[in-house]
Amino acid sequence: MKIRVYYEDTDVGGVVYHSNYLNFCERARSDAFFQKGLTPILKNGHFVARKIVADYHKSAKLGDTIEVRTELLKMKAASFALKQTIYKDETKIFELEIVLAYISFDGKPQKLDEDAKKLILSLFAN
After folding, report:
1. What is the C-alpha to C-alpha distance for residues 62 and 6, in angstroms, rounded to an integer?
2. What does the alpha-carbon distance between residue 94 and residue 53 come to, in Å, rounded to a whole number?
3. What is the structure's pLDDT at 122?
4. Is 11 a catalytic residue?
5. Which of 8, 50, 68, 117 has the most CB atoms around it within 10 Å of its CB?
6. Nearest-CA neighbor of 100 among 54, 40, 17, 58?
7. In whole angstroms, what is the distance from residue 125 CA to residue 73 CA?
């Protein structure tokens, strides 16, 4: 997913504020669902971040066009792990590994049903 860096994404020096890289990754994950006419809120639950490891390589700046690429690393019974990499042109500027847990609407962890597993594979398996 390509994203333009706007003024609201940056600090006073025009450099992307560090937490906005997480927002860009979230936007790309959500957009994968939207492209299929769905949302990340499924009929039996939704996903929450359980673990995040972020690595900042270079900065994006005001006006840049960046690209978020997402790949599925692992799927378990009630969670899955993704690697999301942000590029400016072909230069890697940010990398994120995130574990997303599937929870019911009352906040309890639950197993991904077969439909949810198939959906995750269709969205993020390369």
Report:
1. 6
2. 11
3. 95
4. yes
5. 68
6. 40
7. 8
Per the document, the length of the chain is: 126
What's the rounded Cα separation, in Å, for the pair 15 and 29?
A: 23
pLDDT lower than 50: segments of the chain: none
Candidates 9, 11, 31, 106; catalytic one: 11
d(CA 68, CA 95): 9
Residue 27: strand, helix, or coil: helix
Dist CA 90 CA 106 (whole Å)? 42
* Residue 47 confidence (pLDDT): 96
Instruction: Return the pLDDT at 120.
Output: 96
- Report the amino acid identity of residue 124: F
Q: What per-residue confidence (pLDDT) applies to 126?
A: 72
- Kindly give, in sequence order, each residue whose CB lies less than 8 Å from that of residue 89, ignoring residues fewer than 6 positions away: none
